[in-house]
Design goal:
The chain has helices at 65-74, 98-106, 178-191, 201-205; strands spanning 2-11, 21-27, 61-63, 84-88, 110-115, 127-130, 142-150, 164-172, 196-198. A nine-stranded mixed beta sheet has the order 3-1-2-4-5-6-7-8-9. The longest helix is centred in the last third of the chain and has 14 residues, at 178-191. The protein is of the alpha/beta class and 208 residues long. The protein has four helices and nine strands, in the order βββαβαββββαβα. The protein has a domain at 2-145: Aldolase class I (TIM Barrel, Alpha-Beta Barrel), CATH 3.20.20.
Length: 208
Amino acid sequence: MYTVKEIYYTIQGEGFHAGRPAVFCRFSGCNLWSGREEDRSKAICQFCDTNFWGTDGENGGKYTAVELTAKIKSLLPENSREPFVVLTGGEPALQVDDILVSEMHAHGLEIAIETNGTKLLPDGIDWICMSPKAGTDIVLTKGSELKIVVPQNGIDPADFESLEYDHKYIQAMESDTWDDNIKYAIQYALANPQWKLSVQTHKYLGID
């Protein structure tokens, strides 16, 4: 059984696939933070902006691979020619396995995953987006998209340039210093053109 916080149809707001319709499947749980606000100060990642605790979100619950795939398919328009699902969290790598990947592919789903890179993934995932967090050991050294949230004490984007990712993005951390963070990200991309700027367009547009 897979424990899921929420499943919903929306527009991908950031990174390479920004603007693309997708079903987001947010798995419960993470290995870098409990998800409880009272534990945030003790978390390895203290800037997480998503609610992944429990199963009380839209379409949340416990699913088998067959049930989860069916639920995702039911949320897509009937005319979807390239049905796209984004597996996110929390940390989806704690739950996503070969059985789920095979079931989703058997029903024509293109699979993307958003991961912190501290856990290995099953084979066959179509798009891997890895966003490293300071203070962790990265084991996922190749994929589709590397997205670094800046600034983070202990993370220098230059240290990740040797990893085998097709696209590399810098994204400003949302915080009390967001304006400064945006300026930093822009300047970094300008000075290091191997990096592209990722903007969280869904937050500007009011898209969930």
